[in-house]
Automatic annotation (TrEMBL):
Gene Ontology biological process terms from the UniProt entry: lipopolysaccharide biosynthetic process
Stretches assigned to the Glycosyl transferase family domain: 178-337
InterPro entries given in the database record: Glyco_trans_1
Record key words, sorted: Transferase
A Pfam family annotated for this UniProt entry: Glycos_transf_1
CDD domains: GT4_PimA-like (cd03801)
Taxonomic lineage of the native organism: Bacteria, Pseudomonadati, Spirochaetota, Spirochaetia, Leptospirales
GO MF annotations, alphabetized: glycosyltransferase activity
Annotated protein name in UniProt: Glycosyltransferase
Length: 365
Protein backbone atom coordinates (compact mmCIF):
# COMPACT_ATOMS: atom_id res chain seq x y z
CA UNK A 1 0.00 0.00 0.00
CA UNK A 2 1.45 3.33 -1.05
CA UNK A 3 0.45 6.36 0.89
CA UNK A 4 1.72 9.87 1.44
CA UNK A 5 1.63 9.35 5.22
CA UNK A 6 2.11 5.94 6.76
CA UNK A 7 2.58 4.39 10.17
CA UNK A 8 5.81 2.40 10.14
CA UNK A 9 6.92 0.03 12.87
CA UNK A 10 10.70 0.45 12.80
CA UNK A 11 12.43 -2.47 14.54
CA UNK A 12 16.17 -1.81 14.32
CA UNK A 13 19.16 -0.70 16.42
CA UNK A 14 19.76 3.06 16.63
CA UNK A 15 22.88 4.66 18.16
CA UNK A 16 24.41 4.81 20.69
CA UNK A 17 26.57 2.76 20.45
CA UNK A 18 27.63 3.49 16.87
CA UNK A 19 28.49 0.50 14.71
CA UNK A 20 27.87 -0.35 11.07
CA UNK A 21 24.43 -1.78 11.83
CA UNK A 22 23.15 1.14 13.95
CA UNK A 23 24.63 3.66 11.50
CA UNK A 24 22.74 2.34 8.46
CA UNK A 25 19.57 2.06 10.54
CA UNK A 26 19.89 5.69 11.65
CA UNK A 27 20.39 7.03 8.11
CA UNK A 28 17.24 5.29 6.89
CA UNK A 29 15.28 6.39 9.97
CA UNK A 30 16.35 10.02 9.43
CA UNK A 31 15.24 9.85 5.80
CA UNK A 32 11.65 8.78 6.63
CA UNK A 33 10.88 10.15 10.11
CA UNK A 34 9.83 13.64 8.96
CA UNK A 35 7.25 12.40 6.44
CA UNK A 36 5.81 9.39 8.25
CA UNK A 37 4.69 8.28 11.69
CA UNK A 38 7.66 6.08 12.63
CA UNK A 39 7.27 3.99 15.79
CA UNK A 40 10.75 2.88 16.86
CA UNK A 41 11.50 -0.39 18.63
CA UNK A 42 15.18 0.07 19.40
CA UNK A 43 17.19 -3.17 19.18
CA UNK A 44 20.45 -1.62 20.36
CA UNK A 45 22.72 -3.62 22.64
CA UNK A 46 25.54 -2.29 24.78
CA UNK A 47 27.93 -5.25 24.55
CA UNK A 48 29.90 -6.47 21.51
CA UNK A 49 29.24 -10.08 22.55
CA UNK A 50 26.42 -12.13 21.04
CA UNK A 51 23.70 -13.89 22.98
CA UNK A 52 21.77 -13.42 26.21
CA UNK A 53 24.85 -13.04 28.35
CA UNK A 54 23.23 -11.14 31.21
CA UNK A 55 19.97 -10.56 33.06
CA UNK A 56 20.12 -7.00 31.70
CA UNK A 57 20.08 -8.31 28.10
CA UNK A 58 17.10 -10.59 28.82
CA UNK A 59 15.21 -7.63 30.31
CA UNK A 60 16.10 -5.54 27.20
CA UNK A 61 14.63 -8.25 24.95
CA UNK A 62 11.45 -8.60 27.02
CA UNK A 63 10.98 -4.83 26.72
CA UNK A 64 11.44 -5.05 22.94
CA UNK A 65 8.75 -7.75 22.72
CA UNK A 66 6.33 -5.78 24.91
CA UNK A 67 6.85 -2.57 22.90
CA UNK A 68 6.33 -4.44 19.64
CA UNK A 69 3.05 -5.87 20.93
CA UNK A 70 1.72 -2.48 22.09
CA UNK A 71 2.88 -0.42 19.10
CA UNK A 72 1.88 -2.75 16.26
CA UNK A 73 -1.75 -1.67 15.85
CA UNK A 74 -2.78 0.17 12.67
CA UNK A 75 0.68 -0.31 11.15
CA UNK A 76 1.03 0.17 7.37
CA UNK A 77 4.54 -1.30 7.07
CA UNK A 78 7.10 -3.01 9.31
CA UNK A 79 10.84 -2.51 8.75
CA UNK A 80 12.80 -5.09 10.73
CA UNK A 81 16.57 -5.71 10.79
CA UNK A 82 17.08 -9.34 11.73
CA UNK A 83 19.73 -10.94 13.92
CA UNK A 84 22.32 -13.67 13.30
CA UNK A 85 22.98 -15.00 16.81
CA UNK A 86 20.91 -17.87 18.21
CA UNK A 87 19.48 -15.78 21.06
CA UNK A 88 18.84 -12.85 18.72
CA UNK A 89 17.12 -15.10 16.22
CA UNK A 90 14.79 -16.55 18.86
CA UNK A 91 13.86 -12.95 19.70
CA UNK A 92 13.19 -12.41 15.95
CA UNK A 93 10.91 -15.47 15.87
CA UNK A 94 8.92 -14.08 18.82
CA UNK A 95 8.59 -10.77 16.93
CA UNK A 96 7.33 -12.67 13.84
CA UNK A 97 4.74 -14.34 16.09
CA UNK A 98 3.64 -11.05 17.69
CA UNK A 99 3.36 -9.47 14.21
CA UNK A 100 1.95 -12.57 12.47
CA UNK A 101 -0.98 -10.73 10.86
CA UNK A 102 1.48 -8.02 9.68
CA UNK A 103 3.93 -10.40 7.95
CA UNK A 104 2.74 -9.50 4.41
CA UNK A 105 3.58 -5.85 5.27
CA UNK A 106 6.93 -6.72 6.90
CA UNK A 107 10.27 -6.06 5.19
CA UNK A 108 13.18 -7.84 6.82
CA UNK A 109 16.70 -6.48 6.30
CA UNK A 110 19.73 -8.72 6.82
CA UNK A 111 22.98 -6.80 7.31
CA UNK A 112 25.27 -9.73 8.12
CA UNK A 113 26.51 -12.71 6.17
CA UNK A 114 26.55 -15.56 8.67
CA UNK A 115 22.85 -16.43 9.13
CA UNK A 116 22.94 -19.58 6.98
CA UNK A 117 26.35 -20.95 8.02
CA UNK A 118 26.25 -20.16 11.73
CA UNK A 119 22.55 -20.68 12.38
CA UNK A 120 20.36 -22.31 9.72
CA UNK A 121 22.89 -25.01 8.72
CA UNK A 122 23.82 -25.75 12.34
CA UNK A 123 20.30 -25.91 13.78
CA UNK A 124 17.78 -27.36 11.28
CA UNK A 125 14.88 -26.70 13.70
CA UNK A 126 15.81 -22.99 13.77
CA UNK A 127 15.77 -22.96 9.96
CA UNK A 128 12.35 -24.67 9.78
CA UNK A 129 10.93 -22.21 12.32
CA UNK A 130 12.32 -19.18 10.46
CA UNK A 131 11.27 -20.46 7.04
CA UNK A 132 7.66 -20.75 8.25
CA UNK A 133 7.57 -17.00 8.96
CA UNK A 134 10.03 -15.59 6.41
CA UNK A 135 8.25 -17.06 3.37
CA UNK A 136 5.19 -15.02 4.44
CA UNK A 137 6.93 -11.61 4.69
CA UNK A 138 6.38 -8.81 2.17
CA UNK A 139 10.05 -8.55 1.23
CA UNK A 140 13.65 -9.42 2.08
CA UNK A 141 16.46 -6.85 1.74
CA UNK A 142 20.11 -7.93 1.35
CA UNK A 143 23.32 -5.96 0.89
CA UNK A 144 24.81 -8.18 -1.82
CA UNK A 145 24.25 -11.08 -4.23
CA UNK A 146 26.36 -13.46 -2.13
CA UNK A 147 23.59 -13.56 0.50
CA UNK A 148 20.87 -14.71 -1.94
CA UNK A 149 21.62 -18.37 -1.09
CA UNK A 150 20.21 -17.82 2.42
CA UNK A 151 16.67 -17.22 1.15
CA UNK A 152 16.32 -18.14 -2.51
CA UNK A 153 14.97 -21.69 -1.98
CA UNK A 154 11.89 -20.52 -0.11
CA UNK A 155 11.37 -16.81 -0.86
CA UNK A 156 10.16 -15.71 -4.29
CA UNK A 157 13.12 -13.98 -6.03
CA UNK A 158 10.84 -11.04 -6.90
CA UNK A 159 10.47 -10.36 -3.17
CA UNK A 160 14.25 -10.14 -2.59
CA UNK A 161 15.95 -6.76 -3.11
CA UNK A 162 19.71 -6.16 -3.25
CA UNK A 163 20.62 -2.77 -1.78
CA UNK A 164 24.33 -2.14 -1.12
CA UNK A 165 25.40 -0.15 1.93
CA UNK A 166 26.89 3.35 1.74
CA UNK A 167 29.55 5.72 3.00
CA UNK A 168 28.41 8.90 4.74
CA UNK A 169 28.69 12.09 2.70
CA UNK A 170 31.24 13.79 4.96
CA UNK A 171 33.85 11.12 4.17
CA UNK A 172 33.93 11.68 0.40
CA UNK A 173 37.10 13.40 -0.81
CA UNK A 174 37.63 15.24 -4.09
CA UNK A 175 39.97 13.82 -6.73
CA UNK A 176 42.34 16.74 -6.13
CA UNK A 177 42.57 15.98 -2.38
CA UNK A 178 43.20 12.29 -3.06
CA UNK A 179 45.96 13.08 -5.56
CA UNK A 180 47.54 15.41 -3.01
CA UNK A 181 47.65 12.77 -0.25
CA UNK A 182 49.36 10.29 -2.60
CA UNK A 183 51.77 12.90 -3.95
CA UNK A 184 54.51 11.87 -1.53
CA UNK A 185 53.16 9.03 0.60
CA UNK A 186 56.00 8.90 3.06
CA UNK A 187 55.28 7.29 5.41
CA UNK A 188 52.47 5.17 3.95
CA UNK A 189 49.60 5.36 6.44
CA UNK A 190 47.70 2.16 7.27
CA UNK A 191 44.35 2.43 9.03
CA UNK A 192 42.14 -0.07 10.89
CA UNK A 193 38.72 1.17 12.04
CA UNK A 194 36.33 -1.43 13.43
CA UNK A 195 35.25 -3.05 16.66
CA UNK A 196 38.41 -4.24 18.37
CA UNK A 197 37.44 -7.90 18.49
CA UNK A 198 39.82 -10.72 17.39
CA UNK A 199 37.50 -11.89 14.57
CA UNK A 200 37.88 -8.48 12.90
CA UNK A 201 41.59 -9.21 12.56
CA UNK A 202 43.23 -6.38 14.49
CA UNK A 203 45.74 -8.80 16.08
CA UNK A 204 46.52 -10.36 12.68
CA UNK A 205 47.24 -6.87 11.36
CA UNK A 206 49.50 -6.05 14.30
CA UNK A 207 51.37 -9.36 14.03
CA UNK A 208 51.79 -9.05 10.25
CA UNK A 209 53.07 -5.50 10.62
CA UNK A 210 55.52 -6.34 13.41
CA UNK A 211 56.92 -9.19 11.29
CA UNK A 212 58.14 -6.65 8.69
CA UNK A 213 61.87 -5.98 8.72
CA UNK A 214 62.68 -2.94 10.85
CA UNK A 215 63.77 -0.79 7.88
CA UNK A 216 60.45 -1.54 6.08
CA UNK A 217 58.37 -0.92 9.19
CA UNK A 218 59.76 2.61 9.34
CA UNK A 219 58.16 3.37 5.98
CA UNK A 220 54.67 2.87 7.44
CA UNK A 221 52.49 4.31 10.18
CA UNK A 222 49.81 1.95 11.51
CA UNK A 223 46.74 3.43 13.22
CA UNK A 224 43.91 1.63 15.03
CA UNK A 225 40.56 3.03 16.12
CA UNK A 226 37.56 1.28 17.66
CA UNK A 227 35.96 0.01 20.80
CA UNK A 228 37.19 -2.87 22.94
CA UNK A 229 34.55 -4.85 24.81
CA UNK A 230 36.57 -4.92 28.03
CA UNK A 231 39.22 -2.75 29.68
CA UNK A 232 41.37 -5.85 30.08
CA UNK A 233 41.53 -6.48 26.31
CA UNK A 234 42.31 -2.83 25.75
CA UNK A 235 45.22 -2.75 28.21
CA UNK A 236 46.71 -5.99 26.79
CA UNK A 237 46.70 -4.39 23.32
CA UNK A 238 48.12 -1.09 24.54
CA UNK A 239 50.92 -3.01 26.26
CA UNK A 240 51.76 -4.75 22.95
CA UNK A 241 52.18 -1.47 21.07
CA UNK A 242 53.86 0.45 23.91
CA UNK A 243 57.01 2.26 22.81
CA UNK A 244 56.35 1.65 19.10
CA UNK A 245 56.39 5.17 17.66
CA UNK A 246 54.74 4.31 14.35
CA UNK A 247 51.79 2.37 15.85
CA UNK A 248 48.92 4.31 17.44
CA UNK A 249 45.61 3.39 19.05
CA UNK A 250 43.06 6.22 19.07
CA UNK A 251 40.32 4.55 21.12
CA UNK A 252 36.66 5.08 20.29
CA UNK A 253 36.50 8.01 17.86
CA UNK A 254 33.90 10.57 16.78
CA UNK A 255 33.08 11.61 13.19
CA UNK A 256 35.61 14.47 13.17
CA UNK A 257 38.47 12.17 14.12
CA UNK A 258 37.26 9.50 11.70
CA UNK A 259 37.28 12.01 8.84
CA UNK A 260 40.77 13.17 9.81
CA UNK A 261 42.12 9.58 9.91
CA UNK A 262 40.57 8.62 6.57
CA UNK A 263 41.82 11.85 4.93
CA UNK A 264 45.40 10.95 5.83
CA UNK A 265 45.20 7.17 5.26
CA UNK A 266 46.56 5.57 2.09
CA UNK A 267 45.53 1.97 2.83
CA UNK A 268 42.59 0.73 4.86
CA UNK A 269 43.16 -2.71 6.43
CA UNK A 270 40.41 -5.11 7.50
CA UNK A 271 41.90 -8.63 7.77
CA UNK A 272 38.59 -9.98 9.07
CA UNK A 273 37.73 -13.62 9.79
CA UNK A 274 34.09 -12.72 10.39
CA UNK A 275 31.34 -13.86 7.97
CA UNK A 276 30.86 -10.25 6.86
CA UNK A 277 27.62 -8.87 5.47
CA UNK A 278 29.12 -5.85 3.73
CA UNK A 279 31.49 -3.78 5.84
CA UNK A 280 30.61 -0.09 5.75
CA UNK A 281 34.20 0.68 6.72
CA UNK A 282 35.40 -0.60 3.32
CA UNK A 283 32.93 1.66 1.51
CA UNK A 284 34.08 4.55 3.72
CA UNK A 285 37.66 3.81 2.69
CA UNK A 286 36.60 3.94 -0.98
CA UNK A 287 34.89 7.31 -0.46
CA UNK A 288 38.02 8.71 1.20
CA UNK A 289 40.29 7.50 -1.60
CA UNK A 290 42.09 4.62 0.09
CA UNK A 291 43.30 1.32 -1.29
CA UNK A 292 42.04 -1.64 0.76
CA UNK A 293 43.69 -4.76 2.17
CA UNK A 294 41.12 -7.36 3.23
CA UNK A 295 40.12 -11.04 3.16
CA UNK A 296 37.87 -12.89 0.72
CA UNK A 297 34.69 -13.16 2.79
CA UNK A 298 31.73 -13.62 0.42
CA UNK A 299 30.03 -10.42 1.61
CA UNK A 300 33.23 -8.48 0.98
CA UNK A 301 33.64 -9.94 -2.51
CA UNK A 302 30.29 -8.37 -3.48
CA UNK A 303 32.06 -4.99 -3.31
CA UNK A 304 35.77 -5.85 -3.58
CA UNK A 305 37.95 -7.29 -6.36
CA UNK A 306 41.58 -8.20 -5.76
CA UNK A 307 44.07 -5.92 -7.59
CA UNK A 308 41.21 -3.56 -8.55
CA UNK A 309 40.05 -2.19 -5.18
CA UNK A 310 43.16 -3.26 -3.32
CA UNK A 311 44.81 -6.47 -2.19
CA UNK A 312 43.22 -9.67 -0.95
CA UNK A 313 45.04 -11.61 1.76
CA UNK A 314 44.48 -15.06 3.22
CA UNK A 315 42.24 -15.27 6.25
CA UNK A 316 43.99 -15.58 9.63
CA UNK A 317 47.40 -15.16 7.97
CA UNK A 318 49.81 -12.53 9.33
CA UNK A 319 52.38 -13.86 6.80
CA UNK A 320 50.09 -13.01 3.88
CA UNK A 321 49.79 -9.46 5.23
CA UNK A 322 53.55 -9.09 5.80
CA UNK A 323 54.18 -10.12 2.17
CA UNK A 324 51.70 -7.57 0.76
CA UNK A 325 53.17 -4.77 2.87
CA UNK A 326 56.71 -5.68 1.72
CA UNK A 327 55.67 -5.85 -1.96
CA UNK A 328 53.74 -2.58 -1.81
CA UNK A 329 56.83 -0.55 -1.07
CA UNK A 330 58.05 -1.46 -4.57
CA UNK A 331 54.67 -0.86 -6.25
CA UNK A 332 53.62 2.38 -4.57
CA UNK A 333 52.48 3.92 -7.86
CA UNK A 334 49.58 1.46 -8.12
CA UNK A 335 48.07 2.87 -4.91
CA UNK A 336 46.91 6.19 -6.39
CA UNK A 337 45.24 4.47 -9.35
CA UNK A 338 43.35 2.15 -6.98
CA UNK A 339 42.41 5.00 -4.63
CA UNK A 340 40.93 7.10 -7.45
CA UNK A 341 39.03 4.12 -8.85
CA UNK A 342 37.59 3.36 -5.39
CA UNK A 343 36.49 6.95 -4.91
CA UNK A 344 34.78 7.04 -8.32
CA UNK A 345 32.89 3.80 -7.67
CA UNK A 346 31.78 5.08 -4.24
CA UNK A 347 30.44 8.28 -5.84
CA UNK A 348 28.50 6.20 -8.38
CA UNK A 349 27.18 3.41 -6.14
CA UNK A 350 27.62 4.01 -2.42
CA UNK A 351 25.96 7.32 -1.52
CA UNK A 352 23.50 7.65 1.38
CA UNK A 353 20.81 9.10 -0.88
CA UNK A 354 21.04 6.10 -3.25
CA UNK A 355 20.68 3.73 -0.30
CA UNK A 356 17.72 5.46 1.36
CA UNK A 357 15.81 6.07 -1.88
CA UNK A 358 16.20 2.40 -2.90
CA UNK A 359 14.89 1.28 0.51
CA UNK A 360 11.92 3.64 0.29
CA UNK A 361 11.10 2.28 -3.16
CA UNK A 362 11.09 -1.32 -1.90
CA UNK A 363 8.83 -0.57 1.08
CA UNK A 364 6.59 1.77 -0.93
CA UNK A 365 7.24 4.97 1.02
Amino acid sequence: MKSSYMKILYIAPLPPPINGHSLVSKEFYDSISAKHNVEVINLRKQSLKEGMDSIQRIVEILKVLARTFFKKSKTDAVYFTISESLAGNLKDVLIYMICFNLLPKMYIHLHGGSLKRLLFDKYPWVFILNRFFIKRVGGVILSGDSHLEIFRDYVDRKKISIIPNFAQDYLFLSEKTIRRKFDQPSPIRLLFISNMIPLKGYLILLEGFLALKADLQKKYVLEFAGRFDTEEERSIFEEKIKGKKNIRYHGLIDDTKKKELFEKAHIFCLPTMFFEGQPISILEAYAAGCAVITTGQSGILDIFTDQVNGFQIRENSPESLTKILSDLLVEQKSLLKIALYNNRSAVEKYRVVTYTSNLKKVIGL
